[in-house]
Design goal:
The complex is a heterodimer.
Chain A: H1 7-24, H2 30-56, E1 62-68, E2 71-76, H3 79-102, H4 109-128, H5 132-150, H6 156-187, H7 195-201, H8 206-223, H9 232-235, H10 241-249, H11 252-268, H12 270-275, H13 279-298, H14 303-323, H15 327-358, H16 369-372, H17 374-388, H18 394-409, H19 412-438, H20 458-476, H21 484-495
Antiparallel strand pairs in A: 1-2
Helix pairs in contact in A: 1-2, 1-4, 2-3, 3-4, 3-10, 3-15, 3-20, 4-5, 5-6, 5-11, 6-8, 7-11, 8-11, 10-15, 11-14, 11-15, 13-14, 13-19, 14-15, 14-19, 15-17, 15-18, 15-20, 15-21, 17-19, 17-20, 18-19, 18-20
Chain B: H1 2-19, H2 27-34, H3 36-43, E1 49-51, E2 58-60, H4 64-87, H5 94-113, H6 117-135, H7 141-172, H8 180-186, H9 190-205, H10 214-220, H11 223-244, H12 253-274, H13 280-303, H14 309-333, H15 344-360, H16 366-380, H17 386-412, H18 423-441, H19 448-455, H20 460-468, H21 474-489, H22 509-537, H23 541-549, H24 551-565, H25 567-585
Antiparallel strand pairs in B: 1-2
Helix pairs in contact in B: 1-2, 1-3, 1-5, 2-4, 3-4, 4-5, 4-11, 4-14, 4-18, 5-6, 5-11, 6-7, 6-11, 7-8, 7-9, 7-10, 8-9, 9-11, 10-11, 10-13, 11-13, 11-14, 12-13, 12-17, 13-14, 13-17, 14-15, 14-16, 14-18, 15-17, 17-21
The chains are: A mainly alpha, B mainly alpha.
């Protein structure tokens, strides 16, 4: 039934091989390492683009290998997976550039870039997994390959954060493992999209399936940072800026959110999940997390910590959209996977640039920074307006669909949650914008970097400008074919086809 | 093409003018040329376009009322842009101002030509948030406070607005703005949706009780920015209302009465409160609230039923046109007395006088036209208490005259410069005077339907004749002027505040702030309590910390870490793992 293709595997290998090779290089082989990194990143974007074009022509790509009886390792390309893979690969390319600039002259760069590559291998693996078991393998691989990145600086604080991170994610992984095994025992191997399997078992195994759903959801919720399992996220912002950017935009948290999307839409199926009333608890937790994260963000003076709590809040938009049944809210949830990614990565890049260039990490130090770093703060400001949900930035499109979806489903309380979140987002982000553009600097700041004519190093500046413009373009050109929104709409349409 | 230029040119102008080196004089010309497409669309009927690629599929078109307002907006931005060139020539933050000015201009034009919800909301937001930069421009503590209150109120407005739009789009099933009023007329929750919009746009309009940011923010901006804020941008809220209101389709008597009463409360209350002020610009801001009240009344009449939208909405737009041009004239005029000397001052006073007359509805100005329209609609509506309302309308002419003659008196106190004239200041102002005068006096803007409605069988000449000999419009204005002259002349009656305002601008904002501070104190206490509670507990997430703080667990994880720390080991491990996988898979 399937045509086997090596292409999905190649997508993974394009970052795995450079990662492994980098591990075998010496620390001082900088040009070769950089070359490998960029080669892998560009190759990955190219391959994903290639597969995308093929998929649009109607070709199917899958790669299936039997690990043991009934236990298959399957990579399969579907629209949702490609959507996530495209996000990962594009943002990885940008972040690689950023990381090269950021870590210039730093220590342990070999280790860093190797695991950086593994991390992306894992997240594209998650995107392209064809069944639950493969998903789980990559999910755990991701946990292990990000740990070295979190503790990269090697300070006590970093190691402690790494420990917290491991406790949470390994714990979550264990719970997920239980769920995956349970599901395997109950329903056999399930490929994504085969919702008829669960549908067939629903009459006989209703209780088991309900319990399994919540076990797996709990496991996934750790990475998706849903309250009360979000504690690791604000702590692990001690990681270097490119890591935080990747962690908060594509890799870890997105893996959790993407897992929830897969679980509800492609394992249980939205109709069954709705019938069994599995979604209401998810909606409630997600809604609470949205408000809770925003309230906590209000009280942080540390720039990256405020961003981290904002991620906690914004991620739950995805879960909330999944939990509401309807074409519009599904579109909102799926498109927010990408929109949140590009906006949040812009913010972390900006925070990293400021910290690298002037050494500021507190929001109270940011007075007048807009004058000195206009491009960085310009991109940041765009992202802020997106987070609040103001048009024409990407975040508006997500929020528009989520809000309309909530009204369509008659869940008016969700609209109130969205409004509260918008107001809180404004309350904790606009003061940063205000300080940057409308306050006079307290003291004459001397840049730590001699950056020549640009406001900071070119390799730090280009990524933030690119992702800032992407956030804007994803909103302004939302109706164009090929935009994140148009793909999300197609995904949702297929899901709700009778 | 022209539709896109309308939006794109101001944006380009924003960037271009902001990057001009100091001392160049081009700013004014750049802004004027950026308004050309908008002026063209205001004058010439062009069929609408759709932009499939823009946002959630954009549509741009105009109808009669919005075209009138677009013309007004174009004229005001052109005049203010030209004025900016000379007014801010030596300002250190000229570049920044130009940026926000251009962006707000793009937003203002964009929202007027948008025919569908998403782009309308986009440009509305663009205008709202760009004008923050105009309000805060001087960076004085009072401007900062005004800007803060402005942005808080703007966000509250946006939240109400987006809710109204969610519900409206859901009930109409279409993104087109034109589909909303019929859908609201049908929907059972139509009045509720309209009420949300009434609040959301009411912030911008300065409707009671949402206006208190306005007397702070409008005067805080530099004169040309105040002119567009109070003349053009304030009308954006009105346009929003007109997009939602199912005029002629429904009989929402309580909603109608609510709007009419709030409108009259604003028309009279704001004018009277404004009398206690000493800053001419604050004075004008209160006058704006008062005039927007009259427009609120007009729209409110429409919701009572009986008057078709084709008549009422253009009439409201005409009223807005007249008020907008005159108000911008006066706001820019506040910058003149300190700059204009010699015999040019005669021209200045004459222009200011015409502006005041036009707002008060005096003869020989466009104001009479528009006041006449209000009277006609109010007189013919079946609204209960229409007679009383007519009386209130006349009374509002008296209070407006009082307020604005006091404004003239306040301007009068500003010393004339000893040097000579700078015509650069007078040119845009005179152009605005002429443009505003021409279009409000001639019936060029009137749609034929409305024209025949008001002239009845008498014909246009008789109507004109009546208009210029309508002395009944004169007595309220004369009364107001005489009272003001009298109180100023005789020291015993002259109790007008001279240095400090009798009551603080922003009136009941101060009560809100007082209550807010109290609430904030309580909240702070609660939060600090909660915080100390959190510190001892840290919620469920602390369980993990406790586990990880435990000695034994830390030992275990430390040894695990030391193992993992051998990166070479880990890297090679990964490599071997995937190599075997790969070989097996082959």
């Amino acid at each position: 039934m399937e045509t086997t293709s090596i292409l999905p595997l190649l997508i993974l290998i394009s970052s795995l091989i450079p990662g492994t090779l980098i591990m075998l290089l010496r620390e001082d082989q900088v040009p070769l390492r950089t070359f490998l990194n960029l080669l892998g990143a560009v190759a990955k974007v190219g391959l994903v683009g290639w597969v995308f074009a093929g998929y649009m022509r109607g070709e199917e790509y899958s790669f299936i290998f039997n690990l043991a009886l009934d236990l298959t390792f399957a990579l399969r390309v579907d629209q949702l997976g490609l959507f996530f893979a495209a996000l990962s690969s594009v943002l990885w390319l940008v972040t690689t550039l950023y990381a090269i600039g950021y870590l210039e002259g730093g220590q342990h760069r070999r280790r860093f870039f190797a695991f950086f590559s593994f991390c992306v291998t894992a997240s594209t693996g998650i995107a392209l997994s064809g069944n639950v078991v493969t998903f789980f393998i990559f999910y755990e691989f991701l946990t292990l390959s990000t740990y070295p990145l979190v503790v990269h600086r090697g300070t006590d604080k970093a190691v402690e954060a790494g420990r917290t991170y491991l406790w949470y994610t390994i714990g979550g992984g264990t719970v997920l493992f239980l769920g995956v095994v349970g599901l395997f025992v109950t329903a056999g191997p399930i490929y994504f999209g085969q919702t008829e399997i669960i549908e067939g078992l629903i009459s006989t195994h209703s209780t088991q399936l309900t319990i399994l759903f919540f076990i797996m959801l709990t496991g996934l919720a750790v990475k998706a940072a849903i309250f009360p399992l979000h504690g690791w996220l604000p702590v692990s912002m001690v990681a270097p800026a490119p890591v935080s950017a990747l962690l908060h935009a594509v890799a870890v948290v997105k893996a959790g959110a993407f897992g929830i999307v897969r679980l509800v839409y492609d394992v249980y199926g939205i109709r069954i999940a709705d019938q069994m009333n599995l979604l209401t608890p998810l909606a409630i937790f997600a809604a609470f997390t949205i408000v809770y994260g925003s309230v906590r963000a209000l009280f942080q003076d540390d720039f990256k910590k405020r961003l981290a709590f904002s991620t906690v809040s914004q991620l739950s938009y995805i879960a909330l959209g999944v939990a509401i049944v309807g074409f519009l809210s599904t579109t909102g949830a799926v498109v927010h996977l990408v929109h949140q990614g590009i906006m949040k990565i812009t913010m972390f890049f900006a925070a990293g640039n400021i910290a690298e260039t002037y050494g500021y990490s507190k929001i109270s130090q940011l007075n007048g920074i807009g004058r000195r770093m206009p491009l960085t703060m310009g991109a940041f400001t765009i992202a802020v307006f997106g987070m609040i949900g103001l048009p024409p930035v990407a975040g508006f499109v997500s929020k528009w669909y989520l809000g309309l979806g909530a009204v369509e489903a008659g869940s008016y309380w969700v609209v109130l949650v969205l409004l509260a979140s918008s107001a809180l987002n404004a309350a904790y982000f606009l003061p940063i914008v205000y300080r940057a553009w409308f306050c006079e600097p307290d003291q004459e700041a001397v840049p730590l970097l001699s950056s020549g004519r640009l406001e900071t190093k070119a390799l730090l500046l280009i990524p933030v400008v690119v992702t800032g413009l992407l956030s804007l373009a994803a909103g302004v050109f939302a109706a164009v074919a090929g935009s994140p929104l148009s793909i999300a709409r197609e995904i949702a349409e297929k899901l709700y086809m009778p | 093409m022209i539709w896109f230029l309308t939006i794109v040119l101001p944006l380009l102008a924003a960037i271009l003018a902001a990057s001009l080196p100091a001392g160049r004089r081009w700013t004014g010309l750049i802004f004027v040329s950026a308004t050309m497409p908008a002026l063209w669309l205001g004058l010439v009927e062009v069929s609408g376009v759709s932009a499939q690629w823009f946002l959630l599929e954009g549509h741009f078109s105009l109808d009669t009322p919005r075209r009138i307002i677009l013309l007004l907006t174009g004229i005001l931005w052109a005049a203010a842009g030209l004025f900016t060139g000379s007014y801010l020539k030596d300002d250190a933050r000229r570049g920044e101002f130009s940026f926000y000015f251009g962006a707000a201009m793009a937003g203002n034009f964009g929202l007027l030509i948008s025919a569908e919800v998403a782009s309308f909301y986009t440009f509305f937001a663009l205008m709202t948030f760009s004008s923050y930069g105009l309000v805060i421009h001087t960076r004085t503590p009072s401007a900062r406070q005004a800007a803060r209150i402005y942005v808080v109120m703007a966000i509250i407005g946006e939240l109400f607005l987006i809710t109204a739009l969610y519900l409206a789009v859901q009930s109409s099933g279409s993104m087109l703005l034109a589909d909303i009023p019929p859908a609201l007329a049908e929907a059972p929750n139509g009045p509720f949706i309209f009420l949300l919009g009434l609040i959301g746009f009411g912030v911008k309009v300065g409707a009671i009780p949402l206006y208190f940011w306005l007397p702070l923010a409008h005067p805080a901006a530099p004169a040309p920015a105040s002119a567009v804020l109070s003349g053009a941008m304030i009308k954006a809220g009105l346009v929003g209302w007109m997009h939602l209101a199912p005029v002629g389709l429904v009989e929402w008597s309580s909603m109608s009465l609510l709007m009419v009463s709030l409108g009259f409360a604003a028309a009279l209350g704001a004018a009277i409160y404004g009398l206690t002020q000493v800053d001419p610009k604050t004075n004008l801001a209160y006058s704006s609230i008062s005039q927007m009240g009259v427009m609120t009344v007009l729209l409110g009449i429409g919701l009572y039923g009986g008057i078709p939208a084709g008549l009422l909405l253009p009439a409201i737009a005409l009223y807005a046109f007249n008020h907008g041009t005159a108000k911008a004239l006066l706001f820019m005029g506040t910058a003149l007395p300190a700059k204009i000397g010699g015999s040019w001052r005669i021209l200045m006073w004459a222009g200011l006088g015409i502006g005041v007359l036009a707002i008060a509805g005096g003869p020989l100005t466009g104001g009479l036209w528009t006041k006449y329209l209000v009277k006609t609609f109010l007189g013919e509506s079946s609204l209960p208490g229409a007679k009383t309302f007519l009386l209130l309308l006349t009374l509002s002419a008296v209070t407006t005259t009082l307020l604005l003659s006091r404004f003239l008196h306040l301007l009068h106190k500003i010393k004339a410069p000893s040097g000579n004239v700078s015509p650069a200041f007078l040119l845009p102002w005179v152009l605005l005077l002429l443009a505003g005068g021409w279009w409000t006096m001639s019936p060029a803007l009137l749609p034929t339907e409305l024209m025949s409605y008001i002239t009845k069988e008498k014909g246009i000449m008789a109507f004109f004749w009546n208009l210029f000999t309508n002395w009944s419009a004169l007595w309220p204005i004369t009364t107001g002027a005489i009272v003001m002259a009298f109180t100023l002349k005789f020291a015993f009656f002259n109790r007008w505040p001279a240095k400090k305002p009798l009551l603080p601008p922003g009136d009941f904002l101060h009560i809100i702030i007082m209550l807010g501070n109290l609430f904030a104190k309580l909240l702070q206490k609660a939060i600090s309590l909660l915080d100390s509670g959190m510190k001892s507990l840290q919620g469920p997430e602390k369980i993990f910390y406790r586990l990880s703080d435990d000695k034994r667990t830390s030992q275990i994880s430390a040894s695990a870490e030391s193992l993992l720390r051998r990166w070479e080991f880990a890297g090679i491990g990964f490599f071997i793992f995937f190599l075997t996988l790969f070989l097996l898979l082959r």
